[in-house]
Amino acid sequence: MLITELIEIKKILDEAIDKYNSICILTHKNPDGDGLSAALALQEIISQFGKKADLVLEDYCPEIYDFLDGEERTKVFSDHMIYDLLIILDCHEEERLGICTPLIPTAKQIVVIDHHVQQNLIEDASTFIDTETVSAGAIIFKMYETELKKFPAEKANYIATAIYTTILNDTDNFLNRNTDADTFSISSKLMQYGIVPGYITEHFLLSNTADQIKFVGEVLSTIETFDDERVLFMHATQNMLQRNGLDNTATSKLTRWVKGTRHVEALACLVEVRKNRYRLSLRSNHINVNKVAVKFGGGGHKKASGCELKGSLEEIKSIILEEFRKQL
């Protein structure tokens, strides 16, 4: 069931939290700074209501979220897990939950909050989608802004820090074109809770090791351009990660290193997941990359989307280049 009013989804969620003691928060596979940080914020909000919610991930929480105590606040999925209430953030499609998908059929109630373009809704879930709000975390802030003012200062600061992180993630530190007046208004309100933007930015966006920077250098060395430099491709391989002693978490946000490249109108970063399978990050301020991602089972936003494809590196580049050219 699609819910169109924020006040209605809040009422549904509040009643569900009050009703159930077995609560789980999920986000999409390969969690990013919006889904994961929004989940951390909501987990803390629920704790202020006197309830406990497990935040379940496919794997251990990446170190980049240590400043939010990510590892201590999350659990890794296991087959025996069953929850009465599932709260899904930053995605609304069952297939994007990865190995956590089995939690859906055993749940008594499911509430979904997202800001991506609508695709396949989860059956029997109460789903709220607001594509105009910058991040899922920002939606959580709008839902609980009044309550946040009543929380203890330390807890309110944690929640505000997590929500600000969601905004940093989805605006790429306010560089993306989804940055609008509402984005700055929410950020300004979060300042009331003592957040330190420079501290958050340093830990979330700039805290790279030398090996991570070397890895980025290898990825950037793969850059190819087509059509008079209007299209840019780059890729990362498992061998690159192994050479630098890194895991797949190091492949997040690679596109930010080429943001603003002169003449480029569309770009794709291909990350090898395993042999002949790549995860794609598609970015453009000129075409609707969501159309491309959806065609191959992915999704996201008009200017930033992703998907996975099987095939060799050259085959996939050829396919995506053709799709870009249809719009360019």
What report would you give on this structure?
This protein has 328 residues and is of the alpha/beta class. It folds into two domains: 203 residues, Alpha-Beta Complex (inorganic pyrophosphatase (n-terminal core)); 117 residues, Diaminopimelate Epimerase, Chain A, domain 1 (Roll). Helix content is 39%, strand content 20%. The strands form two sheets. The protein has a seven-stranded parallel sheet. Strands 8-9-10-11-13-12 form a six-stranded mixed sheet. Helix 4 links the parallel strand 5 and strand 6. The longest helix has 19 residues. The relative contact order is 0.10.
Strand order of the largest sheet: 1-7-6-5-2-3-4
Architecture of the largest domain, CATH level 2? Alpha-Beta Complex
CATH T-level fold name of the largest domain: inorganic pyrophosphatase (n-terminal core)
Tell me the distance between the termini: 36 Å
In the CATH hierarchy, what is the superfamily of the largest domain? inorganic pyrophosphatase (n-terminal core)
Question: What's this entry about, in short?
Answer:
This protein is of the alpha/beta class. The protein contains twelve helices and 13 strands.
Please name the defining characteristics of this protein.
alpha/beta; 13 strands; 39% helix; Diaminopimelate Epimerase, Chain A, domain 1; inorganic pyrophosphatase (n-terminal core); 2 domains
List the helices and strands and how they pair.
Layout: E1 2-3, H1 6-19, E2 23-27, H2 35-48, E3 53-57, H3 70-73, E4 74-76, E5 85-89, H4 103-106, E6 109-114, E7 126-129, H5 136-148, H6 153-171, H7 181-190, H8 197-206, H9 210-220, E8 224-226, E9 231-236, H10 238-243, E10 266-274, E11 277-283, H11 289-295, E12 299-300, E13 304-310, H12 313-327
